């Protein structure tokens, strides 16, 4: 595995670790605001322009920036989108901001679709996965733990209820 492969693997791991549960974001706009790719109005007088927020999750913003730079190195949809924005009169920085937002939307949609597939697979009692959803684990699930002497009263209680709105997943047909 070379450095390029490590970077993409590390970036994917960072996304999964930092985002955790994608359904905690009601829509892609909330996700973009959280990761700092939502545009902020920076207009003055008759000049209308936007800039990226300096707030938000900087680690994810960095991952999206690296993704954008890689997209610009090679011909493809990302480079085409950037070139189109430049042709529309955007500066290089503005076109990069647009590309990062587009990538944020792609990441959100991909993670949400994956979350939906996971829910559908879990609901169908897929025999290829174990009780925790991992492949190859066919052991019986135990609410009291893996140790025979552990009772349910030895388990920590769940934290406070989370009132944050969450994206509803599609129910399996």
TrEMBL record:
Compositional bias ranges of the Polar residues kind: 139-155
Sequence ranges assigned to domain Transposase IS116/IS110/IS902 C-terminal in this UniProt record: 10-82
Coiled-coil ranges per UniProt: none
Domain of life per record: Bacteria
Entries under InterPro entries matching the protein: Transpos_IS110, Transposase_20
Annotated stretches, region: Disordered: 119-173
PANTHER family referenced in this protein's UniProt entry, alphabetically: TRANSPOSASE FOR INSERTION SEQUENCE ELEMENT IS1111A, TRANSPOSASE FOR INSERTION SEQUENCE ELEMENT IS1547
Protein name: Transposase
